[in-house]
């Protein structure tokens, strides 16, 4: 059983037309009273016949119950599975901001976010942020955050994320990579309870450049940076050929892999544990996790949603909150 956080976890509703409402109920049913959390959203968006009870404050979610604890947040419209309504966009944004306020004032122990639909938010409320991560950083007043994908057998951190592959070499600078490494190292200490984190760093090019034959980024930028950081006592391996980093024996030698771009990080973790991966935002003044999938409009409302990643995200949020509280 996951350690209990200092306060119940706030689970945001995400896009009401997606699988979020179903996932909240399924997670509540499977976790029971072992991990207190509450859902922030409009009860009208929950499936018909859902077992839920309204709470007036997050503290009430810490008390044992046999249904989903709901902190009510009324929306402008109803929810039709699979069909996002722009009228609900502002409500989705408000729920995220409300969850952040609750965790920042200590009323909630962590924030776990269900998937949003960025186009619906842009169309309905002029949402200008690329996604959850950037909006959370804005709300927290933080300039730089890092995305980690975490599963029991692997943690990966991409230095660049949602950008075309053709733009990665230009964006991958020594300051960016150094900041990514430092934020990941600090988070592993503070939020995962790893006193001496071991980081493996991938190269950018095939075979980590193969001595310059397949690219010089490793020679000219990555290796010198790693050497300098090793001089400070940071435990770093690499730059390594990415195709040798993710088999079981290699994974046993590090606590997280620093990767150069999105697919280099996400393909291995989704291969190792597709349903159990959790999206974690590192560098925030609070804990934030999320299931590693989208709104799944194609199966919304059909009873086919898999809560595995949501349950893993809630459990990891509880573990991280407990680790941070004891740091």
UniProtKB/TrEMBL annotation:
One of its GO terms (cellular component) is cytoplasm. GO terms for molecular function: 4-hydroxythreonine-4-phosphate dehydrogenase activity; cobalt ion binding; magnesium ion binding; NAD binding; zinc ion binding. It is found in: Cytoplasm. Keywords: Cobalt, Cytoplasm, Magnesium, Metal-binding, NAD, NADP, Oxidoreductase, Pyridoxine biosynthesis, Zinc. This is 4-hydroxythreonine-4-phosphate dehydrogenase. Its EC number is 1.1.1.262. GO terms for biological process: pyridoxal phosphate biosynthetic process; pyridoxine biosynthetic process. Catalyzes the NAD(P)-dependent oxidation of 4-(phosphooxy)-L-threonine (HTP) into 2-amino-3-oxo-4-(phosphooxy)butyric acid which spontaneously decarboxylates to form 3-amino-2-oxopropyl phosphate (AHAP). The keyword Ribonucleoprotein does not apply. Homodimer. Gene3D superfamilies: Isopropylmalate Dehydrogenase (3.40.718.10). Its cofactor is Zn(2+); Mg(2+); Co(2+). A divalent metal cation binds at residues 162, 207, 262. SUPFAM superfamilies: Isocitrate/Isopropylmalate dehydrogenase-like (SSF53659). Substrate binds at residues 132-133, 270, 279, 288. Pathway: Cofactor biosynthesis; pyridoxine 5'-phosphate biosynthesis; pyridoxine 5'-phosphate from D-erythrose 4-phosphate: step 4/5. Pfam families: PdxA. The active site is located at the dimer interface. Belongs to the PdxA family.
């Amino acid at each position: 059983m996951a350690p209990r956080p200092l306060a119940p976890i706030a689970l945001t509703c995400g896009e009401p037309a997606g699988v979020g409402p179903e996932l909240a109920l399924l997670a509540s049913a499977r976790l029971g009273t072992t991990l207190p959390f509450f859902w922030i959203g409009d009860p009208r968006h929950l499936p018909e016949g859902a077992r839920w009870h309204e709470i007036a404050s997050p503290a009430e979610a810490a008390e044992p119950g046999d249904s989903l604890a709901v902190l009510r947040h009324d929306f402008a419209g109803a929810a039709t599975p699979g069909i996002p309504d722009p009228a609900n966009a502002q409500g989705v944004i408000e729920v995220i901001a409300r969850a952040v306020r609750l965790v920042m004032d200590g009323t909630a122990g962590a924030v776990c976010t269900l998937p949003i639909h960025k186009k619906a938010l842009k169309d309905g409320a002029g949402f200008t942020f690329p996604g959850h991560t950037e909006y959370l950083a804005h709300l927290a007043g933080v300039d730089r955050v890092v995305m980690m994908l975490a599963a029991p057998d692997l943690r990966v951190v991409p230095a660049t994320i949602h950008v075309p592959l053709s733009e990665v070499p230009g964006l991958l600078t020594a300051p960016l990579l150094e900041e990514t490494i430092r934020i990941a190292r600090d988070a592993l200490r503070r939020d995962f309870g790893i006193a001496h984190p071991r980081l493996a760093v991938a190269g950018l090019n095939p075979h980590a450049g193969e001595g310059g034959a397949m690219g010089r980024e490793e020679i000219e930028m990555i290796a010198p940076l790693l050497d300098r950081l090793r001089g400070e006592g940071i435990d770093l391996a690499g730059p390594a050929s990415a195709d040798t980093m993710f088999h079981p024996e290699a994974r046993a030698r590090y606590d997280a892999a620093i990767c150069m771009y999105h697919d280099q990080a996400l393909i291995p973790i989704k291969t190792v544990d597709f349903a159990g991966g959790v999206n974690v935002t590192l560098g925030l003044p609070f804990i934030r996790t999320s299931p590693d999938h989208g709104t799944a409009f194609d199966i919304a409302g059909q009873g086919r949603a898999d809560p595995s990643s949501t349950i893993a995200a809630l459990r990891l949020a509880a573990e991280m909150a407990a680790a941070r509280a004891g740091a």
